[in-house]
Amino acid sequence: MPQDNRVEVTYQGPLNQCVDAFPQKALSPEGARVVALSAWRLPGRLRLTSHFNMRVRERKFDIFDVEYVIRHGCPVGKAVFCKGEDRNNFKYRFRGTVDGLGLRVVFAIDATQDYFRAPLVILITAAWNTKTGARKR
Q: How far apart (Å, rounded) are the C-alpha atoms in residues 52 and 106?
């Protein structure tokens, strides 16, 4: 009999879209997984930082590797709130295995955006479990 892979997510954010109600609360790591993966289906709701793009080239991974780790990997620790001039987000870390090699992924979810209607996911970095963090292809 197939196992049910559904995850129940409890929304803990504001009940309205009033800008005064933000930032929203952190999600559990499993809730963050669901919200992050939903951003892949929404145009313009997945932001790749310049740091992420630099690491893609240096470390030889791609966005599909990152999606795979978020979908099938394990969360590492709890959310960390990052506040600054240009950010109000919760950062999450996941680790998984892609083609037999470990990959660590860091992404954030913008706490000023609605988590379920239009989540904004920011891809920050990733590194292979090698001495340099890069993969030889």
A: 9
CA distance linking residue 104 with residue 94, whole number of Å:
6
Which residues does 106 contact at the CB level (< 8 Å), separation at least 6?
Answer: 91, 92, 93, 124, 125, 126
Query: Which of 63, 59, 58, 43 lies closest to 123 in space, CA to CA?
Result: 63
> Residue 87 corresponds to which tokens in the numbers above?
């950010």
Tell me the per-residue pLDDT of 39-61, one tens digit each, with 9 for 90 and over. Answer: 988 776 899 999 999 999 999 99
User: What pLDDT shows up at residue 40?
Assistant: 86
In the chain, how long is the greatest CA-to-CA distance? 51
CA distance 18 to 7: 28
| 65: helix, strand or coil | helix
Look up the pTM and report it.
Answer: 0.82
* Residue that the structure tokens 């309205």 belong to: 16
pLDDT tens track for 30-40: 999 999 999 98
Joined together, the tokens standing for residue 74 give 């394990």
| Cβ atoms < 10 Å from Cβ of 133 | 16
Judge whether 102 and 96 are in contact, CB under 8 Å. Answer: yes
